[in-house]
Write a structure and sequence with these properties.
With 384 residues, the chain is α+β, with helices and mostly antiparallel strands. Helix content is 36%, strand content 30%. The termini are far apart.
Length: 384
């Protein structure tokens, strides 16, 4: 049985302990210690990292009542000196307790219970029991959680019996036997939890909600929130400088640019359609008309092909180069050629895919052999 020093002092950064046994885990050396300050992956919280006798601790897992430390190299001796990666531990303290505060805030604001929690490398998420949470609910829950942080309330962590737990205002009463570890924020939250938490809510730092997607809320706390806010400010400043706009005028500037872009796109479509008509008229009046255009898109090919096959007895086999290669095969209504199998082979030549009807096929792919694809398709049509 491993003594869990992280429960006795979650701020313990260095410790020494006797090596109980050595083993292998996933092909790596591992050790079990008599006591450890390394937190194992559990309850949605990732494991600690750090060193043991200079070896890097790459994973920490629970096996029954023992805690196994998986290392990047073997260690010698009967005693191990451990050093916790404190920045990672502090980050996990902030994220995990921030989740407790945010989860309770959603209960109070929107009567939405948390059904799951994930502490990721960059962001954290909670899944709520209802999809009826609104952006206003999110803003209110975030504000309430941050109020509790700013009040710097005491956090009590203690073991309780099932009888004692039944008398506590638990947010979600645990369904387990034996002693229960309780994390309680004065006059706010009371939860069963096996994770590491700070002594006071002020250590969580700012809680920043990043988004709401159906019933999933993404957020960051503490140093992560500060870093995210700093990065957002840098982006806003950079965009504002490029648009010669202040932060407060940025939304209006972006809206104006989008409107101008939409108008320009509509005008370009009209011009491209007119150009397609001229291009189609300039092409030879052969039964099978083929050509590869440079730096053109699928819509241009469609427009040219439609102009060509508007006249009876014609087949268009057109390709285009660009970021990706594009192909269009089309025939007039009076031509009885099934273009599907021919187009399927052509799409393979450009490592792409496409589809459509027997009379009109279109698609694209990253392959550069568009000229070869057009020529092979033209020959198959002529031979059919």
């Amino acid at each position: 049985m491993t003594r869990r020093l992280y429960y006795e002092d979650q701020y313990l950064r260095e410790f020494a302990s006797r090596v109980v046994r050595r083993l292998e885990s996933g092909g790596r050396p591992a050790v079990v210690l008599e006591a450890t300050a390394f937190y194992p992956t559990s309850g949605g919280q990732p494991h600690d990292t750090g060193t043991l006798n200079g070896a890097r601790v790459v994973d920490v897992v629970e096996q029954g009542e023992e805690i196994v430390h998986i290392l990047d190299k073997p260690i010698d001796g009967d005693e191990a000196r451990g050093a916790i990666d404190w920045s990672r531990r502090m980050d996990h303290l902030q994220q995990h307790h921030g989740q407790h505060l945010l989860s309770e805030a959603f209960v109070r604001v929107a009567q939405a219970e948390t059904t799951s929690f994930h502490l990721g490398e960059e962001t954290c998420t909670i899944d709520l029991s209802t999809e009826r949470v609104t952006p206003d609910d999110v803003a209110a829950a975030e504000a309430l959680a941050n109020d509790i942080v700013l009040e710097n309330r005491e956090i009590a962590i203690f073991q309780a019996t099932r009888d004692e737990v039944s008398k506590l205002p638990m947010r979600k009463p645990p369904q387990v036997e034996g002693p229960i570890r309780v994390v309680r924020v004065a006059d706010f939250d009371c939860s069963a939890c096996c994770g590491t938490h700070p002594r006071r809510t002020g250590e969580v730092g700012p809680i920043l909600v990043l988004g709401l997607e159906r019933a999933r809320v993404s957020f960051v706390c503490g140093r992560r929130a500060i870093a995210r806010a700093r990065r957002n400010l840098e982006i806003l400043k950079g965009v504002g400088e490029r648009l010669s706009s202040s932060r407060d005028d940025l939304e209006a500037a972006v809206a104006r640019i989008l409107a101008e872009r939409a108008a320009g796109h509509k005008s370009l479509q009209t011009i491209e359609k007119e150009l397609a008509g001229y291009v189609a008229a300039s092409m030879p009046a052969d039964k099978v008309v083929s050509r590869v255009f440079e730096n053109r898109g699928l819509k241009f090919l469609q427009a040219v092909a439609n102009e060509i096959v508007a006249k009876p007895g014609r087949i268009a086999v057109l390709g285009a180069t660009g970021e990706t290669s594009s192909l269009v095969l089309a025939r007039s209504k009076d031509v009885a050629v099934d273009l599907k199998p021919i187009a399927a082979e052509a799409f393979k030549s450009i490592e792409g895919r496409g589809g459509g009807s027997p009379s009109f096929q279109q698609g694209g792919g990253p392959g550069k052999n568009v000229g070869e694809a057009v020529e092979n398709a033209r020959r198959k049509i002529l031979d059919s």
